[in-house]
């Protein structure tokens, strides 16, 4: 007679996680970046922002990247990354008015592949934090996919969603159908956080990181 022993749910979960990691590593084109699939350091995140030539994730290009590490309840501005990236096409006047980078500024920038390697080394396996992070991740994945055959696997945390949940919990029941203002300036003002000049990749990453730390603390105090 064969004795069958049920596997505990946590063992099944570990098994699935190990299987997924093995599968993703199999498709990874450069084993140097296997660390992306490691367990992230406890209580660490990376706040991230990109400035681009426009808002079309399929065709526009990255011109600058800002990233800063978060450990516990501290934003470590001494552990930051600021990169200028050289786009393949000329900048448009409309985009220069937004991010204030000129042709001569980006002409000396990094090749996109080199910038991606530096960014991935900086992030490690840490979860990513940002304001409307989905767009930034889509822009980064356009560069990373041809390089590595995979997309950014790190957990993504959207600051505007955290803020929405925070404001929604504060609303009386009869007001919960009202629109919540999710503009970055509004979020910073409502959280009583010091604003920085917007549309600068590092500044925006720092502000997103500050908002994340504050919202985590407010959530823990509920």
Q: Could you explain the architecture of this structure?
A:
The protein is α/β, with parallel strands linked by helices and 222 residues long. The chain has one domain: Ribonuclease H-like superfamily/Ribonuclease H (Nucleotidyltransferase, domain 5, 2-Layer Sandwich), CATH 3.30.420.10. It is globular and about 50 Å long. Helix 6 (159-170) packs parallel to helix 8. The chain has helices spanning 9-27, 93-99, 103-107, 112-123, 133-148, 159-170, 184-190, 201-220, and strands at 44-52, 62-71, 74-84, 128-130, 156-158. Strand 2 (62-71) and strand 3 form a beta hairpin. The model is unreliable at 1-7 and 9-16 (pLDDT under 50). The protein contains eight helices and five strands. Strands 3-2-1-4-5 form a five-stranded mixed β-sheet, with helices on both faces.
């Amino acid at each position: 007679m064969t004795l069958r022993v049920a596997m505990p749910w946590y063992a099944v979960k570990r098994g699935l996680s190990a299987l997924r990691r093995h599968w993703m590593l199999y498709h990874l084109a450069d084993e140097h970046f296997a660390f992306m699939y490691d367990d992230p350091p406890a209580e660490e995140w990376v706040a991230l922002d990109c400035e681009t030539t426009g808002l079309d994730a399929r065709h526009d290009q990255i011109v600058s990247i800002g990233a800063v590490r978060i450990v516990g309840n501290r934003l470590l501005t001494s552990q930051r990354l600021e990169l200028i990236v050289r786009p393949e096409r000329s900048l448009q006047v409309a985009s220069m008015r937004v991010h204030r980078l000129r042709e001569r500024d980006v002409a000396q920038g990094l090749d996109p592949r080199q910038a991606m390697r530096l960014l991935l080394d900086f992030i490690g396996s840490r979860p990513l934090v940002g304001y409307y992070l989905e767009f930034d991740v889509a822009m980064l994945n356009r560069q990373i996919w041809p390089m590595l055959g995979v997309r950014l696997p790190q957990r993504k945390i959207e600051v505007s969603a955290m803020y929405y949940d925070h404001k929604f919990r504060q609303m009386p029941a009869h007001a919960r159908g009202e629109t919540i203002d999710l503009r970055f300036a509004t979020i910073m003002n409502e959280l009583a956080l010091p604003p920085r000049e917007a549309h600068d990749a590092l500044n925006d990453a720092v502000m997103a990181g500050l908002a994340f730390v504050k919202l985590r603390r407010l959530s823990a105090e509920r």
